[in-house]
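Data card: per-record layout.
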Amino acid sequence: MNHSIYSADRTTHIKIVVVALVAGIAVAGFGISARTNSDEGYSQTARVMKAGKAVKITSSGTSTVR
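The structure for this 66-residue chain is written out next.
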């Protein structure tokens, strides 16, 4: 048994590609199904905030060096 990917034969490379492809499709399918089912009871709503009284912020703009 050879444990190097460089010296593996053609069928081993095909098996690795197929397993990776199936795993990728499974992860994508799980992500899509989890996203579409999350709308039931967990929806978020936007809140409108109105501005209050105006606040004045003043500064002299000069710095004191001692």
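Known properties of this structure: The CA atoms of residues 13 and 23 lie 15 Å apart. The first helix runs from residue 10 to 37.

See the next section for split statistics.
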